[in-house]
Design goal:
It contains twelve helices and eight strands. By secondary structure, it is an alpha/beta fold.
């Protein structure tokens, strides 16, 4: 499904956020083999969090038409008992849903785990007893899947959280994450000057109030504050959510061309 997400997004962007039935079907046929029914693929895309909708015989990429200020974002942070998802697992998840610039929902849970290295306890303050009578990995991941919906997946150093969770979802047969990804480090680098962009450094330099660094929910809130700072500094040509996503991974040359075209 990951290839379908990528190819559809490229096609949508080439066609002003709209695909007709023939264009959509061609991509689905090229990159899926398990299901021949395009309606089933459409349902799976939506269930995975990919922001697609249908209007008559047209398919829409919702982020192309949604102003970035009105978009629904899910700001996420995870704590794990190791760095590699094939040998480690999530031990804590914290997340908030933001829409129209306001927090509208919160998610926080420990995840059952039988092995917690001492150095992880020292970093996070999480103890083995915290991870006993709590949701299993599958239960926690299913709950997170429902919580995210089709919101934009936002995290500080998003590649790690996104990749780790994607691998975890796959392990339990929950499919790929289809939610578009936004990294607050990359966004910050393109919107304001800082000596460093690690979360701990930005917490200090931006005077972000935080309960405990290296705890999932607290760090998710801090990532949100970094995102809010960046959103205040966006150039005027970044209006839609799709423009925001592209801006966050844009090169200096791309940004210069956009600025000169205004």
């Amino acid at each position: 499904m990951q290839k379908v997400f990528e190819e559809l997004t490229v096609a949508f962007r080439k066609n002003s956020g709209l695909l007709d039935e023939e264009q959509y079907q061609k991509i689905v046929d090229e990159h899926t083999t398990l299901f021949e029914d395009s309606d089933i693929i459409f349902i799976l895309l939506q269930a995975s969090g990919y922001p697609i909708s249908q209007d008559g015989d047209k398919y829409l990429l919702n982020t192309y038409f949604t102003p970035s200020t009105n978009q629904r974002y899910c700001i996420i942070d995870i704590e794990t008992n190791g760095s590699k998802p094939d040998t480690s697992q999530v031990i804590e998840i914290g997340a908030v849903i933001v829409e129209n610039g306001k927090i509208i929902d919160e998610f926080e849970t420990f995840v059952k785990c039988a092995f917690l290295p001492e150095y992880i306890s020292r970093i996070t303050g999480i103890e083995p007893t915290d991870l006993v009578d709590v949701p299993s990995r599958k239960e926690a991941l299913i709950a997170l899947r429902h919580f995210m919906g089709d919101a934009i997946f936002v995290a500080h150093n998003a590649d790690f959280d996104y990749g780790f969770l994607n691998a975890s979802f796959d392990r339990f047969g929950l499919g790929h994450i289809g939610n578009p990804k936004l990294c607050t480090i990359e966004l910050a680098k393109r919107t304001f000057e800082s000596e460093r962009y690690g979360l701990a450094y930005l917490i200090e330099t931006l005077n972000i109030e935080t309960a405990t660094h290296h705890r999932a929910f607290s760090d998710a809130i801090c990532a949100l504050r970094v995102m809010e700072k960046s959103m205040e500094m966006l150039p005027k040509y970044v209006r839609s959510t799709d423009e925001l996503l592209r801006f966050a991974v844009s090169s200096r040359k791309d940004r210069r061309i956009q600025k000169e075209s205004l």
